[in-house]
Amino acid sequence: MIICGLNKTTLLDYPGKVACTVFTGGCNYRCPFCQNGGLVTDVQSQPQIPEDEILSFLKKRQGILEGVCITGGEPTLHPDLPDFLEKIHALGYPVKLDTNGTHPQMVRMLAENGLIEKVAMDIKASPANYSKLAGVPDPDLEAVRETAACLLHGDLDYEFRTTVIRELHTAEDFEAIGEWLSGAKEYYLQEYRDSDMVLVSGYSGCTLEEMEFYQRILQKTISTVGIRGIDV
After folding, report:
1. What's the angle, vertex CA 38, arms to CA 162 and CA 72, rounded to 5?
2. CB neighbours (10 Å) of residue 104?
3. Three-state DSSP class for 24?
4. CA 80, 86, 92, 96 torsion: positive or negative?
5. What contacts 18, CB < 8 A, 6 or more positions away?
6. CA nearest 169: which of 220, 216, 203, 197?
7. How many other C-beta atoms can be found within 10 angstroms of the C-beta atom of residue 128?
8. How many CB atoms lie within 10 A of CB 107?
9. How many angstroms separate the CA atoms of 161 and 168, rounded?
10. pLDDT digits (tens, 9 = 90+) for 126-176
11. H/E run at residue 209
12. CA-closest candidate to residue 17, choices 96, 134, 114, 127
């Protein structure tokens, strides 16, 4: 595993649990609004944390932490992810996986083997607009659709989420997403905040009113649609 970061305590990344967050390095997308740019484009210069150090930390925090969130980068790029999650589970921790959904076979295998308890899948945009938001010319939409379908029709706990960018998203995006993911259990619209770490500067977040407008669009087909990161 290429592990480039550890947030030792979070109340946000694994909803309902006091958790820690492990950041893996490397990603197959180049989302211009990515907040973890160094983990995407410059992995070799990032400090790396040995797997044993993470496991030692988790062992010491048994009885205090209630879960582990695995994020990135894109964790499913790592073929040794299942082995790492087995070791985390051996310490008694449930795992939440954050993913862009481009490796459905990995997500399915982790779920079938009981190595993840929840998935948060990023939905970048409507299929027609995916390339612009993913930052690559030909994103594998078939893989993304397969992962989404696996979650929609499976037994694993999950949520879909979109970081909303005023300059990149439109009402048409959310109309199409609502049709695509009709009947989803949970969907969250996340506030975008500019920072020095983003890959491309100059983007801005939406107002609460704009977020609520997109929320109402999604609520036509998705029962639970929340807004995160902005005062509501």
Report:
1. 50
2. 21
3. strand
4. positive
5. 9, 10, 11, 64, 65, 66, 67
6. 203
7. 11
8. 26
9. 16
10. 999 999 999 999 999 999 999 999 999 999 999 999 999 999 999 999 999
11. helix 208-218
12. 96
Instruction: Please report, for residues 67, 90, 117, 209, 231, the alpha-carbon distance to residue 63 in angstroms, rounded to integers and kept in the order given.
Output: 10, 14, 18, 41, 32
How distant, in Å, are the alpha carbons of 42, 44, 96, 186, 216 from that of 15? 29, 31, 9, 12, 23
Domain range annotation of the chain: 3-228
At residue 116's C-alpha, the angle toward residues 114 and 120, to 5°, is 145
Report the alpha-carbon distance of residue 175 to residue 179 in Å, rounded. Answer: 6
CA torsion sign for 6, 96, 19, 65 is negative
> What does pTM read for this prediction?
0.95
pLDDT tens track for 57-97:
999 999 999 999 999 989 999 999 999 999 999 999 999 99
pLDDT over threshold 60, residue 220 = yes
Q: Which residues contact 138 (CB under 8 A, 6 or more apart)?
A: 131
Per this entry, what is the length of the chain?
232
The yes or no reply on domain 3-228 and CATH 3.20.20.70 is yes
Hey, what are 175's tokens?
Answer: 């109309």
- Angle between helices 81-90 and 51-60 in degrees, nearest 10: 20
Residue of 13, 52, 53 whose CA lies nearest to 35: 13
Residue type present at position 31: C
